[in-house]
Amino acid sequence: MTEAPTSAAMIPVRLLAHGRAGDKGNRLNISVIAFDRQHFDHLKTHVTEELCGQAFAFSPPSGITRYVLPNIAAMNFVLEDVLDGGVNVNLRLDRHGKTLSYALLDMLIPAPPGWGGQDPDGK
Fold it and tell me: Cβ contacts of residue 47 below 8 Å, gap of 6+?
């Protein structure tokens, strides 16, 4: 009996990129910046508007736009209507959304070919 082939290793986005988040009214923007330019194309392929929507399923945005910035190996995601009305009216602990980049950075994507990196959490 032969075993089914195993799928590619899945890793969190945070192993290949860091992020920054900010707000303007009820709009959130998240930057995803590759640690190493060699991983940018891989990130661009897998860190999509759809993946971002999955990351924010707990508070679905009405729209998501991804802007690709190849000169700095980064992407910026703009999420509409995701901050419960904005800083002045919502009751969230992090009303500005500064920590919300981690929702996207913790999403799993396939490891890049030849990936030999180690998850700092040991997973």
Answer: 13, 17, 32, 75, 104, 107, 109
